[in-house]
Structure formats: C-alpha cells, structure tokens
Amino acid sequence: xxxxxxxxxxxxxxxxxxxxxxxxxxxxxxxxxxxxxxxxxxxxxxxxxxxxxxxxxxxxxxxxxxxxxxxxxxxxxxxxxxxxxxx
Length: 87
Known about the structure:
Elements: H1 29-35, H2 44-47, H3 53-65
C-alpha cells in the first residue's frame, strides 16, 4: 500500500509570506551608489564598551570636537652656550 503524502504545513504568520514573483531585482541599487554604504564592524572587545550605535556616534563626535594636538619634538637651539666670565 502506498503512503499518502503529508500536506506541507506552513508555520509562518501571513505577514511573513512574500510573493517573490513581484520582487524587483536591484530596487535599491542606484540609491546605494549615490548615498553610499557606511558599514563599520567593531571588534568584539570594542563593541562591549558601547550599548548601542548612538553611544558609538556620541563618542566619535566628542573625539572629533577635540582639537588635534600635534605633539612633535622641538628642535634644540643650535646656538652654542655662551661662556660667562667673571669680571
């Protein structure tokens, strides 16, 4: 005797079904080219320091507001030391 095929049961809610026949290929492609995609992946240890993307943006903006301090070595004077003579 042949087994009857079990009907496929779809457990998804109706709002999650998608009709791929109405899909448009590359719908957002041009917008991506004009606006660009700025995706930054943080290392896990850095990501732990921030609770969300707003905290990361706040920290980076405060860093950008600080003046760039250029700590460079200052050259010593090439003038030789004058000898002080006692008069």
